[in-house]
């Protein structure tokens, strides 16, 4: 049984409305005893909605100063980062998109509370996240909030940061670099440059 946090019934923590619920065929993102890596959102959008020519999703090792991964992406492509929370020992999914050439946050999913995980709606500048309680866990909706580049401190095998790329291919960050390396997720080429002042965001820090 999923542990229910004492604040789960507080104002602002909503049951998922019908529009956010799936039917019997809905794929569950979080399953007991398994870390599920499924497609996450990296949508490449440009002015007028045209596909961004030459846009690529990259993973760069900032510690070593080298490019680890580069894949072409287009409008509607998805990328997901999954890791196992180091304290709760449960999977956490972070889903991103690219809007107007800026790496943006779409949502986070988890099934139990833990350190550095939200317990309700949060405010980031002009964006207020949605916090939904569903049958199989919690969803935090970021509504395409722009992040800029996302930095990740690569965790060990017990954390197992894994990316699912467009087309379904999976890449473990530990297969690209060492534990403790600082890597950056980003998009280069084909899109609108990220606006000045867009903050760098650190996520998935081996939690």
Automatic annotation (TrEMBL):
InterPro entries linked to this entry: DUF1850, TAT_signal
Residues covered by region (Disordered): 1-25, 188-207
Taxonomic superkingdom: Bacteria
UniProt feature, compositional bias: Low complexity: 8-21
Protein name per Swiss-Prot or TrEMBL: DUF1850 domain-containing protein
Species in which this protein is naturally found: Nocardiopsis suaedae
